[in-house]
Structures are given as structure tokens and as C-alpha cells.
Structures
1.
Amino acid sequence: MKKIMVLIILPLMTNCLTFRKNELAKYPSPVSVTTPVAKKLTYKLDFTSDAIVNGNNDKHEPVFVDERKKQLDAVIEETGLLIPASDANGEYTIRYYIKEVSSANQGVAFLFGFTGGLIPMYIGTELNSELEVKNKAGKTLGKIERKESFSMWGQLLFIFVAPFQRPLGKIEDIYRDQMRSSFEEAIAKKYFGNYAVNPQPNE
């Protein structure tokens, strides 16, 4: 399966159109902290993920895990409330879980990769996430779930239809938007304390 996925990914990096359902729009509007934070709170991050491809657990590669952790740290820093703990004793434990469920025809996927994208193909993905916040005593303060679906259509000639598309960049945006939506709701629900928040329009 991993060899087939490599054959898929290489042509998709340039010859693909990505479409998202924008299911995040149904969740509460983003918020920003309006009360100055004199002393930022500390956290430790517990990140896990699963990749399900055609019903089989294919596990994300270490590079994916590292990238998502960096992305999470950046999103958390944007809240203006939290900074990573210097040791294992953060004031909060943030557990973030991603389950990525994808489906594609393996025969078509092989032909797509083997022909460099001449044969068209489709990949459908449902991205589920769960954010859980715990205090220093280990008590769960709350959980927030998100779901977003997107599809990728690949074909060699798409490079002429949309030469400036960045399909992998669009998927990165979906991960980031899902993370931001989760943390903004966690702030609004006061999982990290009683901070004044200001609703912002969705981007």
C-alpha cells in the first residue's frame, strides 16, 4: 500500500485539484483573546494519529507527525494564551488526535502513478480530529471534535487547467483550519480560564 501511495503522491504534487466541503463553517465563529495575559499558561502536547486507507490502518509517517506537531504548536501560540512547558509538568495537557480516512481505487492509483498522471484518479478523504484539554491534576476539562471532508482529483492535464494550484498546501490549510477552530472553541468555553473573547468573522 505504501508503494502505491508514493506513486500517487508524486504526480499529485503538481497535477491535482483539491476540493473541500468547508464543514467547519457550521461551527462557532472564531474568537480572539481581548484580555492581556500577564503570564502565559504552559502546556505539554500529546499528539496521536491514524491513517485509514481503503479500510486498512496505514499509520502516518514520522515526517507527517512532526509536521502536525509543529503546526499545532504554531496554532496554539497564535491564541496568545499558551506556551510550551519547559519540562513535563505543564499547567495543561493538550491531547490532539487525528483520524484520516481515505479511499481510492488501488488499480487506478497504480496506473495513475505508473503513467505519471496520464490516467486520472480520485481520492476521497474524511479528516476527523479530537481536542482534549486536561488540567495539571489530570482532570479532563472538555473535548472538542471536528470533521472536514475533501477530495483530490489528479490528471496530468490539470497542470494546464490550474498551473498555480498547490494541492498539498491546500491540505495543510485544512489541517490548520481544523486545529484553529478547535482551539478557538476551547478558549470560548473557558477550558484555559476566564478570559474575555471577541468573536471574529470566519476567514
2.
Amino acid sequence: MATAKKAPAKKAAAPKAAAPAKKAAAPKAAAPAKKAAAPAKKAAAPAKKAAAPAKKAAAPAKKAAAPAKKAAAPAKKAAAPAKKAAAPAKKAAAPAKKAAAPAKKAAAPAKKAAAPAKKAAAPAKKAAAPAKKAAAPAKKAAAPAKKPAAVKKDATPVKPPVKTTKAAPKAAAPKAAAPKKAAAKPAAAAPAAKTALSPQAAWPFPTGNKP
């Protein structure tokens, strides 16, 4: 019974005895690293201090933008499925984009070389702008006159009806030929009638003579 009472006391004493040693060891091990980081922290302090007013000044703008950000959240959430659905297409297009990169990179020097010429042409383009602007009303006023001329051009061709009148006699020709064709049919039927009235016509009896 005495041994059973001593066991829990030993168990409880072990963590209690280890705690101060653990506590003492932890800061001691971290101290060199903390000490080494101190100069960097000290050096960063002025920059942090200098950035504080800007951070403070930006706070109202950040605060003011919060409702807009909050209001945009549902739209952002609604657009998420579409964005997710477009991801495979974007992923599939990546190789083509990657393949086009060298050509884009190769074209960059030419683009860079053309930049000074483009820059040099800018003043001339800028100088021509007022003249272009001044010519705009005249161009606008000339537009209605140009439009009726276009309508007149569209109205000129009257050739198709003439073609139809020429084709009319052709269409009448088969009609004129139709009676001839009809007249030919009775002539063809005439020999059949003659054979029917002929005395030599076939007789159904075996004697071969008419009664």
C-alpha cells in the first residue's frame, strides 16, 4: 500500500522538475540568433519609422476604399466559377504563349529601334492635328453631297429588264412549236386505225374465215 502512494508523487514531480530546465534552455538557445538579428532590426527601424507617416496617411484612403472592396466582393465571388472554367483554356494556351515568346523577344530590338522614329514623328503628328480638326467640319459637310452621288450610282443600272424582254420570244417559240407536235400525234395514230378496219385483220376463230 505504501509503494502505491509513492508512485503518483514521483510521476507528478518529474514534469515539475523538468519545466525550469526547459524554460532556461529555450531562451539560451534562441539568444544568439536573436542577437544576430538585432543589427538588421535596428537598421530597419529608421525606414520603418519613416514609412509610418505614409502608412498613417494612407489609412483614411484604405478605410474609404473598404466599402467599395466589400461591395465588389459578391461580383468577385460570382466571377470565380467563370475564372475557374477559363483556367484550362488559359493553361492550354500557355505553351503557345511560351513558344511565341522568342519571336516576341526577337522583335523587341526592331521595336526599340523604331521607337526614336516614332518619337520624332510625334511632333509632326501633333502639329497636323489642328489642321485635321479644322478640316473635319468641311469633311462632314461634304458627306451628304457624297451620299446622293452614291445613290445615283446605285440607281443607274436598268439592264436586267431588257434581258427579260429579249428572252420573251425564246419562251414563245416552244409554245408555237406545240401545235405541230400535237398534229404529229394523230398522223402516227392513223395507221393503227387502218389496221383495225382492214379485212385482213386477225379473226379469233380457228377457221380463219368470217361467218
3.
Amino acid sequence: MERDRFPAASMPTAASNPVDQRYVDERRAERLANARSIVDAGTHGFAIELVCLGCRRRRVIDAEPLYTLAHAKGWSPQFDALGPRLKCSSCGGAAKLTAIDAPADSPAIGPVTIADYRALLTSVANELNRRRRGRY
């Protein structure tokens, strides 16, 4: 088979060819510039930067826990729609979200364990039931 004739160790990689690496870097920069939702950021391995519009406090988080929280609450994953829902813990101001190519400094946001996630889903379901019945 052709695969057996070319073992992975002898195959050229993008890192071994500077032209290919430059192309990979350009594509990554293009994806970063076009990221408009937490789904885009998470798919391409970017972190999310939250900047408070009131006090300018900055926090960098992983996209996956933020997506889990937004999905459980039924929020839109778009940065523009999600920003006003996230409040600063210092001043209570809304957040501006952007994708950045850096590691997250605060990975724990939203539910961390399965039990926490189930509790969040239960509370959201209870809230929806109260609203549906007119008891909210």
C-alpha cells in the first residue's frame, strides 16, 4: 500500500517547510479575524477575551465552558448577543467579547462538573416551566 511506503516520520510537515508554515499562520490569522461567535472560536482553538465596558477589567477564558453555559441557558453564541448577558463581577457592567490566540487564564466558568451542569439544566427547566405557567 502507498501508505506503508511513506511512513509518517519521513513525510514533510508544515513546520518543516517555511512556506507551508507561513500559509498555516495566515489561515489562522484569517480565522481569528473572522471569529464572530464562541462556536467559531472554540472550533479553531481560540480563547475568548472578556473586557468590561464599565471598568475595563479583562479576563480570558476557554470557549468550551462559555459555550456550555450559553447553550444550557438558551443564549445566542454570537459575541454581540452574548456580551450584554455577561456581567462584570466588580462593577456589573456588560462585557465585550473577542477571540484571541492566547491561552485562557480562567478556565473555570459555568458548570465544572456533571453534577453542576445537571443542576444548571434543572434550574433553567424550572424557570422555563414557571414562565410558561405565568408564575414568574
